[in-house]
Amino acid sequence: MRHRRKQWQTDILEKDWPFYFKNPSLLSGQWNDNHYEAVHVEIGSGKGQYIVEMAKLYPNKLFIGIEMMPLIGSYILKKLSVENLNNVRIIIDNADNIKEWFEAGEIDVIHLNFSDPWPKKSHAKRRLTYPTYLNVYKHLLKNHGQIHQKTDNIGFFEYSVEQLSQNKFVCLDFSADFRRNDHPEDAETEYEERFMGFNQPIYRAVWSYSHD
Ligand SMILES: C[S@@+](CC[C@H](N)C(=O)[O-])C[C@H]1O[C@@H](n2cnc3c(N)ncnc32)[C@H](O)[C@@H]1O
User: 22, 69, 75, 199 - which has most CB atoms within 10 Å?
Assistant: First the structure.
């Protein structure tokens, strides 16, 4: 379904915000000016609940959210416009271009939260854990950098586990029902809240990549 852009969305997307980076390639290699303990990047931030809540939980870390749909990204900008957070940056563009925005080894953690599962085999290349994406992540991650994945979709989760293991990522943590226990250290995403409301298990895995 196509949504018409509302006036507030046009206004918020056109305005210059200190947290909204319209030309992210200009920042390549300079996202962390030695200010923050770590650089976290979320690909497919949706309306931004995760990135905003994580930035509040970890003020010493930098959180960069990437969302390709301007209409959806406008909600992140709206959330941030009423917060006073210095440690969030937003890119509204397709992460297929991510290599132009970051230097090799610039990222500590990549978060893939409830990424579109693209269940049809013919669409496998679009999955954010398809090997071409994994190769880009390897390039952008620091030595021992991590990928944190959460999803409700068992088929996509199994596929991702297979791809990450085959591509030399090492699994550090794994849960087939992550929210059975409390995890105050990790914020809930919008999709996660919805699936938890249906009592669906949340699958989560943490992976590390070594350049050695
Ligand atoms: C299913 S939603 C999940 C949103 C959010 N992470 C959550 O858990 O609530 C997936 C989001 O990823 C975005 N997305 C998918 N592929 C992307 C890409 N290549 N670059 C940036 N955003 C992408 C979509 O536009 C959508 O907003």
Answer: 75
Give me the residue label for tokens 């937003």.
90
Token pair of 162 as six digits:
């297979």
Judge contact between 97 and 43, C-beta under 8 A: no
How many Å lie between the centroid of ligand 1 and the Cα of residue 167? Answer: 23
Q: Along the 212 residues of the chain, how does pLDDT read in single tens digits?
A: 667 889 999 999 999 999 999 999 999 999 998 789 999 999 999 999 999 999 999 999 999 999 999 999 999 999 999 999 999 999 999 999 999 999 999 999 999 999 999 999 999 999 999 999 999 999 999 999 999 999 999 999 999 999 999 999 999 999 999 999 999 999 999 999 999 999 999 999 999 999 98
Please check whether residue 4 lies inside any domain of the structure: no
Domain limits for position 45? 19-209
Distance 212 CA to ligand 1 centre (A): 31
Continuous segment of H or E residues that includes residue 208: strand 203-209
116 is catalytic: yes
Q: How far is CA 60 from CA 12, 179, 196, in A?
A: 27, 25, 29
For the domain that residue 27 is a member of, what is the CATH number?
3.40.50.150
Tell me which amino acid residue 46 is: G
The type of residue at 32 is N
Start-to-end CA span in the chain (Å): 47
User: pTM for the whole thing?
Assistant: 0.97
User: What distance in angstroms lies between residue 45's CA and the mean position of ligand 1's atoms?
Assistant: 5
